[in-house]
Design brief:
Strand 38 and strand 39 form a beta hairpin. The strands form ten sheets. The chain has a 22-stranded antiparallel β-barrel. The two termini are 34 Å apart. The chain is globular and about 90 Å long. It contains seven helices and 44 strands.
Length: 862
């Protein structure tokens, strides 16, 4: 019922936007200022003044003002590799989600299994296998305005509407942005409340996916001055993305049946079908939510801006297809869905003390996900792996309470509950001073309540996880990651056209994990032994080591240790995490169980030299370092993993030529030391360890040209990322080569060697209308799906692809109309490849781009 209520609120907001008549409002400009604050500092490139008499096709990208260095600066004055997609370009390209805007960011790559479950990489800093709820922290930070929204379980897919710009900062940002900005930072900057006027907009879309369903979208915004010193801005949206993958009819059978896909029982084995779940256009998505910001000018110097964001995303089905079944087809046997809901409350206070700028940015983020996943592939793989002993039926104890063999298929019910608190206080000296500093303090604490329930229908109580009948395996853990930092950067104008900058960040991280993982343990008594927990089978897998067997007793022993030594097995300590049978992931003390912890401290730094020979040319050299904290493995018998570090050497050039051409380029080399490597190990359990060093070399360039009614943009990146020594199954290689997973010189996965995109837009007046035609082309080369050679061979490579979009439309007064085509030639762009478990090499799933989509958009401003 609460879902309906939320949709009613959003619909009411959109309706209120639509019925306001233009008589009560005038269109107002909300774009960022087109010139940076005047300063005597060298890194200020004058932005050319456009010809006011010429029709303007698109936003001149060189005029965008960014805050990447915690100050307002023209993008051409920022001596780092940065790309920004401004308000008008976001609107022109109708960008609404992560996958769409990363097309335009050549340094960015990602792994995804479905919307809202995405791990971001930059400049080739990727080892693959990340994104698990207890995996390593991200190497790329994500910010919404001033507040970090980086989470362990994948990047927040914030709906893009009424956004001022998206900034992509490539390379280590460890000085100003700290942990998890090791390889770069993505910042989403919203349009702020405006006290100057009342205005708004409403936009809608309907589309049809080839061989798929019908999608739609409606969005609205209102800016409402409350007084001369206060304004409220609200945004609402609802989007339905049509499905295009079909769940087709199929069967699975288990030994002693002769084939794994037989639909008829020939030898008395288990045979099942998926008739109850067969459906076309299986993978649709609904996204809805809203955002509100209140801006209050306390006086001429101080402004307070509280904001709140609510978003919910509901995915149905699966987003990877099985090429063994057919193009855009799967055969799945259990309900599949994911619900991702997050709320963020944030507060920004900006003001002056004397002539120094002071900024406070605080936020609280609450994110809950709930998933149901088909895990049939696991049973299929293990039935085959144990075929020599009769498969699952012959080797395991998948039995009901009467001892009868049951259907061995599993489904996974999982929840993650992320909470994140962050606070930053910083000061900045006047921008016009010859010597300038930015300095501050930062604190964040993020937690995750992890729940993973691997269920088998009718599984007997004695062979289930204790207290959870029908559960084969349970993970119930609490993770806490804390980060403290002090940071500062100082710039000095050596000459009017030469500036030196030095910065550093001192940090402390403190990460912990406690809880339970594994199988149950039969609590019955073996008559020949007389102690509890001695009866066999111990659990459905017959495991005597993992799960309750590893739980702590009151004397500090584990249950298994006491069982083997003949000790008392009856006094298990109470569960540290509610809902689990006991605790096997913790540190035992005489006063009780405490979380396993890993801590670290250190410093990152940045040195930069900026030279500006003319008003329109700037060159820079940067030496910078970023880091990612270490952490605890959620498998108790695996050691913690250490922090990894990225050192960057970079040369860059920024130019504004012929008054309408902007061209920027950079080259770099990065050293990635003892990178964190995440993979599925024994029992398909995520393990993180530090791997070898890697070397990454690359080049990036972007250009923007605008003249008359024509606007052209292009961006490209070349990345050469390789290991510098062998990657082994353990952190220390054996030396005989038998444990080498990837030899020295292996290319890092996920990131293509080459990625490029380009857009063209031409507009012309036709009567009272302004008509336009627009196109986008994006290309990337192939990439490995895994760093380990054997796994990469079974997964197959991510194939090269080129996609294109086109649209034609017109602006008439305050109304816009557009017809568009996305994925023009219906390319199967491979975004990710994955398998359901560590031994499930029989089926590789391919996450692909949406097939060709044709649609109509319309909007109105008032």
């Amino acid at each position: 019922m609460h879902i309906i209520d939320r949709r009613v609120v959003i619909a009411s907001l959109l309706a209120s936007s639509a019925i306001v008549t233009p008589t009560f409002a005038q269109t107002a400009t909300t774009a960022a200022p087109t010139t940076a604050p005047q300063t005597t500092a060298p890194p200020t490139i004058a932005a050319p003044t456009p010809d006011a008499t010429a029709p303007q096709a698109g936003e001149y990208e060189g005029d965008i003002v960014v805050t990447a260095q915690k100050r307002d600066q023209n993008i051409q004055a920022v001596p780092i590799s940065i790309q920004a997609i401004g308000t008008k370009r976001l609107d022109d390209l109708n960008i609404s989600n992560f996958n769409q805007y990363t097309q335009l960011l050549p340094s960015v790559s990602f792994q995804t299994t479905q919307p809202g479950s995405t791990v971001v990489y930059m400049r080739g800093v990727a080892s693959g296998g990340d994104g698990n709820h207890s995996g390593p922290l991200p190497s790329v930070g994500t910010y919404l305005d001033e507040q970090p929204v980086t989470t362990i379980g994948g990047t927040l897919d914030v709906h893009i509407y009424d956004i001022a710009r998206i900034e992509s900062l490539a390379g280590p940002q460890g000085t100003l942005y700290g942990a998890s900005s090791e390889a770069g930072t993505i910042r989403i900057i919203t349009n702020k409340p405006d006290t100057s006027d009342f205005y708004g907009r409403v936009d809608g879309e309907v589309n049809s996916v080839k061989s798929g369903g019908i999608g739609s979208k409606i969005e609205g915004m209102l800016n409402m001055p409350l007084s001369e010193s206060a304004a409220l801005r609200v945004v609402g949206f609802y989007q339905r993305d049509a499905g295009f993958i079909d769940n087709v009819a199929g069967c699975r059978s288990y030994l002693p049946e002769p084939t794994a896909t037989s639909c008829t029982s020939a030898n008395g084995g288990v045979v099942v079908d998926n008739a109850a779940f067969v459906r076309k256009n299986y993978n649709d998505t609904e996204t809805y939510g809203g955002r509100a910001a209140l801006k209050v000018d306390l006086d001429s110097n101080w402004t307070v801006t509280p904001t709140v964001l609510y978003q919910e995303q509901r995915n149905h089905g699966t987003y990877g297809y099985d090429p063994k079944v057919g193009d855009l087809q799967v055969q799945h046997f259990f309900p599949e869905f994911r619900r991702d809901r997050f709320i963020q409350g944030a507060l920004t206070i900006e003001g002056k003390v004397g002539n120094w700028d002071v900024t406070y940015a605080g936020a609280y983020l609450d994110r809950k996900t709930y998933t149901s996943s088909d895990y049939t592939d696991y049973a299929e793989a293990y039935d085959s792996a144990y075929s020599s002993v009769g498969g699952l039926a012959g080797y395991f104890y998948y039995q009901d309470n009467a001892g009868r063999t049951i259907d061995p298929r599993q489904k996974i019910i999982g929840t993650d509950h992320f909470k994140k608190t962050s606070q930053e206080l910083r000061v900045a000296s006047p921008v016009e001073d010859r010597f300038r500093i930015v300095a501050g303090a930062f604190y964040q604490r993020q937690t995750n309540a992890i729940f993973q329930d691997y269920q088998i229908a009718n599984l007997g109580t004695a062979v289930s996880v204790n207290g959870s009948p029908g559960t084969l395996w349970l993970t119930k853990q609490k993770r806490v990651d804390k980060d403290y930092a002090m940071f500062g950067e100082a710039s000095f104008d050596i000459l009017p056209n030469l500036t030196a900058t030095a910065g550093g960040r001192a940090y402390i991280y403190d990460n912990s994990l406690i809880g339970f993982y594994g199988f149950g343990r039969n609590p019955a008594v073996d008559p020949d032994d007389g102690r509890p927990y001695t009866a066999t089978p111990f659990n459905a897998a017959g495991s005597s080591q993992t799960g309750v067997a590893g739980c702590y007793l009151a004397n500090g022993q584990t249950l298994r240790e006491a069982y083997l030594s003949g000790g008392d097995t009856s006094t298990l300590l109470p569960a540290a995490v509610s809902g689990s049978p006991c605790t096997n992931l913790a540190t035992y003390t005489t006063t009780g169980l405490i979380p396993k912890k890993t801590q670290g401290q250190g410093a990152t730094y940045r040195f930069n030299l900026t030279f500006k020979p003319t008003d329109t040319v700037m060159a820079y050299a940067t030496f910078s370092r970023g880091f990612r904290p270490g952490g605890i493995n959620r498998r108790g018998d695996v050691a913690p993993y250490d922090a990894d570090f990225l050192t960057n050497y970079e040369l860059g050039l920024k130019t504004t030529l012929f008054e309408r051409l902007r061209f920027n380029a950079s080259i770099y080399q990065q050293a990635w030391d003892k990178f964190q490597f995440s993979f599925l190990g024994l029992n398909s359990f995520t393990i993180i360890q530090n791997g070898p060093n890697a070397r990454i070399r690359g080049a990036e360039a972007d250009a923007n040209f605008s003249t008359g009614g024509l606007s052209l943009t292009a961006a490209a990146a070349y990345t050469d990322a390789k290991t510098r020594s062998d990657l082994c199954a353990t952190q220390i290689c054996s030396g005989d080569g038998t444990d080498v997973l990837a030899p020295s010189g292996t290319r890092l996965p996920i990131t293509p060697r080459f990625k490029a995109s380009g857009t063209a837009r031409y507009s012309m007046p036709i009567g009272t209308a302004k008509a336009y035609i627009q196109g986008l082309v994006a290309h990337q080369s192939s990439a490995s799906a895994d760093i380990r050679l054997a796994q990469a061979a079974t997964l197959g490579r991510l194939q090269a692809y080129t996609t294109g979009n086109a649209s034609v439309g017109a602006e008439v007064s305050n109304f816009t109309f557009e017809v568009f085509v996305q994925n023009l030639w219906d390319e199967r762009a491979q975004l990710s490849r994955y398998q359901q478990c560590g031994t499930c090499s029989q089926r590789t799933y391919i996450v692909t781009s949406t097939p060709r989509t044709i649609g109509l958009r319309a909007g109105a401003k008032f």
